[in-house]
Amino acid sequence: MLAYVLNLATLMCVNAVLAVTLNFIMGYAGIFSLAHAVFFGVGAYTAAYLALNASASILLTIPAAMLVAGVLSLALALPALRVRGEYFVAASLGLQVIAVTIFSEWHAVTGGLGGLVGIPPAELLGHEIIEPWAFLGLAFTSLVVVVALTTALLRSSFGRNLKAIRDSESAAYAYGKNVAAIKTLSVVVSSALAAIAGAVYAYYLSFINVESFTLDTSVLLMAMVIIGGTGTIAGPVVGTILLMLLPSLFSYMWFLPQSEIGAIQQIAYGLAMVLLMIFRPGGIVGALQGKTR
């Protein structure tokens, strides 16, 4: 039972990092992306490849994963400069489809559909991080660092500029803001920080393949943000906890057909999002804080 709780808590921390970083562009820049799982995957594959072929030190692999994801995020940032709203969602969906194809076919780097196996344990200053408690500590520390960094950015002038662009790009232009640069930087920061979760995930499982980085993952992350509350600090974390606890709760409901648990989960996620959009558009945390959208 303890092993199950530790595993669930570790995966919660990983997904919370992803939800927080997605909320950075969704909730504060107004950029709705269906490609966040791409940068999760880029971070995971970069860290795994370096761990297998160079060094397993997180002081090397995590910064490298962030760098690669940040650079590749320009493929998402450039469409963000030219299109808005549903057009950008379509552009990000296209990037997600392309990335999944690359993850599946680039055997030399990603291992193809079979993925990368035998990823060595994470190392920190010469010490291997193997024990479940130690790994939970690494995942939780990653979450704390990401939350602290995003919070600091949002409370700075950069964060105020992001909110101004979200509310009205035209007004931001009128006040002399460099909208293109601000939007590009926000996407790069979000993607680079998401790569941290990818690196931690790769080390934790010692195996990764494309199935973890598909459109389903991107949609689930968006659901976590929306249900928890976009544009709030705690919302993505609350949404992550709720949506990761639901499968566990469903599995203990003896009256539900166990073979259909996956489908029931998807229905529950969709129903929760619809009801929240109707009655609590600000999400759970947003409703508690009095937000209406």
TrEMBL record:
Keywords (A to Z) from UniProt: Cell membrane, Membrane, Transmembrane, Transmembrane helix
Chain segments annotated as transmembrane: 6-25, 32-52, 58-80, 87-106, 133-154, 185-207, 219-246, 267-288
InterPro entries associated with the record: ABC_transp_permease (IPR001851), LivM-like (IPR043428)
Molecular functions (GO terms): branched-chain amino acid transmembrane transporter activity
GO cellular component, one term: plasma membrane
Membrane topology qualifier: Multi-pass membrane protein
Primary site of residence: membrane
Pfam family, one: BPD_transp_2
Subcellular location: Cell membrane
Name assigned to this protein: Branched-chain amino acid ABC transporter permease
